[in-house]
Amino acid sequence: MILRPVTTEKIVRMIDLENTLVFEVEKKYNKEKVRKEIEKVFEVKVIKIRTSIKDNKKIVYAKLDKRNPAIDIATKLGMI
Question: Which end of the chain offers a freer environment for a tag, N or C, measured as fewer CB atoms within 10 Å?
Answer without folding.
Answer: N
